[in-house]
Amino acid sequence: MISVDEARNNILNGLKAVSTETISVADAAGRVLAEDVIARRTQPPADLSAMDGYAVKASDVQSVPVTLQVVGEAAAGGSYDANVEAGTAVRIFTGAPLPAGTDTIVIQEDAVRDGDLVTLNEAVETGRYVRCAGIDFHEGDAGLSAGKTITPRDVGLLAAMNIPWITTHRKPRVALLSTGDELVRPGEPVGENQIISTNSLVVAAMIRAAGAEAIDLGIAKDNETSLRQMASGAASADLLVTLGGASVGDHDLVQSVLGKEGLEIDFWRIAMRPGKPLMFGDLAGTPMLGMPGNPVSSMICSYIFLYPALDVLMGRKPRTPSYVPARLSHDITKNDQREDYQRALIVGEEDGLPLIKLFSNQDSSLLSSLSAATCLLKREPFADPLVKGTAVEIIMLESAYPNC
Description:
Strand order of the largest sheet: 8-5-7-6-10-9
CATH superfamily of the largest domain: MoaB/Mog-like domain
Low-confidence stretches: none
Shape: elongated
Number of domains: 4
Radius of gyration: 31 Å
CATH class of the largest domain: Alpha Beta
Distance between the termini: 30 Å
Mean pLDDT: 93
Helix content: 10-25%
Largest sheet: 6 strands, mixed
Oligomer: single chain
Structural class: alpha/beta
CATH topology of the largest domain: Molybdenum Cofactor Biosythetic Enzyme, Chain A
């Protein structure tokens, strides 16, 4: 068996980013930039008013109250094009450019208008309520960098930079292949010795949450013909994820059958619980990640291995789960030789930290505890026993990976 860190490194080193495509900025949220984006305009393009009021020379309003003559008006989308002389003002609205000769704004709440005259009751310094040209960015500035996952906030920035199209990595295509005679889809008739297939639905949902495309190839039967035929559907995928069949039992056929189709194995066992029978290799040019058959194992392996793998495929730096400090609400025993990820609930707070309780049954087939869990406690190999109140680190399942 190899360590979790070694397995993760082998997987990430065996992958590369997928090809790129040009898309509309309107469809950009969630995609990963493949190249730097440079602003095509200055924002704002001129000195603009930040408030409704009067554009004046600051030197005219140092002693108040003062009455000035209103010589014109500037609205957003329009302008006052004459030079403003001393002793005069221009009625101005938010977003309008400052007329030549003015350098500050007196807001309308501090002014009293009487025909063509306005009395200003508040002294203001130069530049008050003025958005200076280029205060946001200038033409030629680097806006967003390659590898950035575009947020809805970034879409606004791209649009303001006058960027209608961007080059991103396309969504990776991840083929999912479940294996086992015992599996049926939800809603189908369930035989006496069969169970409902859940793994493909869970992992597909995680893949989509990460920003990739999930392709469900179906459930292969435990025979060579079925597995070979269904695995052929992964030929156009960027990654094949098998679910089950990665162990060494007589009916675990992934290694033996796909080996005849060109599968080269990098590793197939890791020192982790749950998730020991994890496999990674290359199937005739398509990277393959073989997940355990138990649903809890496959989901936790997705957090630890699949999400970082998808990061690489999408052209961004691979992330690791976010850990937060917590305290134990009870004693726990020592750990064995495998890195252990245990499901837990947050049951309170102690010293400002979440207080966690481990589920008493950590069997990797229990979906009810997986659904109810709020976090995972990671334990290192051969970790010592811990007593109630000990500070530990946990993975918060709902925020283990930002944007996922």
